[in-house]
Design brief:
The complex is a heterodimer of chains A (about 110) and B (about 110). Chain A has strands at about 5, 10-15, 20, 25, 30-40, 45-50, 60, 70-75, 85-90, 95-100, 105-109. Chain A is an all-beta fold. In chain A, the strands form 3 sheets. In chain A, strands 2, 5, 6, 9, 10 and 11 form a 6-stranded mixed sheet that branches. The model of chain A has no long low-confidence stretch (mean pLDDT about 90). Chain B is mainly beta and about 110 residues long. Chain B has strands spanning about 5, 10-15, 20-25, 30-35, 45-50, 55, 65-70, 75-80, 85-95, 100-105, 105-110. In chain B, the strands form 2 sheets. In chain B, strands 2, 4, 5, 6, 9, 10 and 11 form a 7-stranded mixed sheet that branches. Chain B has a 4-stranded antiparallel sheet with strand order 1-3-8-7, with no helix packed on it. The interface of A and B includes residues 42, 97, 99, 101 and 102 of A.
Chain lengths: ~110, ~110
C-alpha cells in the first residue's frame, strides 16, 4: 500500500531564511508525486509535480528514488509562503491522490 | 478560467439527518474525486468517478453514496449523519485519469 509521510507538522522560519519541507513515500510502483498548498482552509492548489521539474513561487522539489523522498525547498522564504503544505502520491486505478499529514509553514517577519 | 464548483459551501445538519453535496467539475473534465478533511486532518480519499462510472473507492462509509451524472456533475449523499462526519468535503476533477487534479473550494458540513 502507498504511504506518504511528512514528519514535521509545524515548521517556522524567519523571512529570508531557507526552508525545506520533508516528504517521504512508500510505493511499490513508479511514483508520481506532487506538492499541494492550502492557504487558510481554502482550496488545495497544485504547487509542483515531479514530472515537470519546474520552479513555482521559488519552490523546487526533486524526486530521490533512492531515499524515497520528495522534499520541497525554497532558498529564501517569504511571509506569503505561510500555509499548509501537503505532499501527495498519485496511485490506484483512478490515479487518486494519497496525501501526507501536511506541514504548517509559518514564515516569521 | 472556470474552476471546480461545489455547493453548498456551508451546511449545518442534525444527527441522523441526510445531506447532499454537489460538485460541478471544470468543463470537459470527465473524472471526479471526493475527499473528506476532518478538523486538523489531511484529506482522505472517499470515491472517484470516470465517465459516470465509479472508478475507485477509498474510505467512504456505507452510509454515504455518490454518483456522477450525464453532465459529469457529481453528488455525494450522506445519510444517518454522525457528529464525526463534520468536515470539509472537497471535490476535485481532472480530464481523464492521470492528468492534473484540480480542487474545488470545499463544502463545510457541520453536524450538530
Amino acid at each position: 500500500a502507498q504511504r506518504v509521510t511528512q514528519p514535521e507538522k509545524l515548521l517556522s522560519v524567519f523571512k529570508g531564511a531557507p526552508v525545506e519541507l520533508k516528504c517521504n513515500y512508500s510505493y511499490s510502483g513508479s511514483p508520481e508525486l506532487f506538492w499541494y498548498v492550502q492557504y487558510s482552509r481554502q482550496r488545495l492548489q497544485l504547487l509542483l509535480r515531479h514530472i515537470s521539474r519546474e520552479s513555482i513561487k521559488g519552490f523546487t522539489a526533486d524526486l530521490n528514488k533512492g531515499e524515497t523522498s520528495f522534499h520541497l525547498k525554497k532558498p529564501f522564504a517569504q511571509e506569503e509562503d505561510s500555509a499548509m503544505y501537503y505532499c501527495a502520491l498519485r496511485s490506484g486505478s483512478a490515479r487518486q491522490l494519497t496525501f501526507g499529514s501536511g506541514t504548517q509553514l509559518t514564515v516569521l517577519p | 478560467a472556470a474552476g471546480v464548483i461545489q455547493s453548498p459551501r456551508h451546511l449545518i445538519k442534525e444527527k441522523r439527518e441526510t445531506a447532499t453535496l454537489k460538485c460541478y467539475p471544470i468543463p470537459r473534465h470527465d473524472t471526479v474525486y471526493w475527499y473528506q478533511q476532518g478538523p486538523g486532518q489531511d484529506p482522505q480519499f472517499l470515491i472517484s468517478f470516470y465517465e459516470k462510472m465509479q472508478s475507485d473507492k477509498g474510505s467512504i462509509p456505507d452510509r454515504f453514496s455518490a454518483q456522477q451524472f450525464s453532465d459529469y456533475h457529481s453528488e455525494l449523499n450522506m445519510s444517518s449523519l454522525e457528529l464525526g462526519d463534520s468536515a470539509l468535503y472537497f471535490c476535485a476533477s481532472s480530464w481523464g485519469v492521470g492528468n492534473t487534479i484540480y480542487f474545488g473550494e470545499g463544502s463545510w458540513l457541520t453536524v450538530v
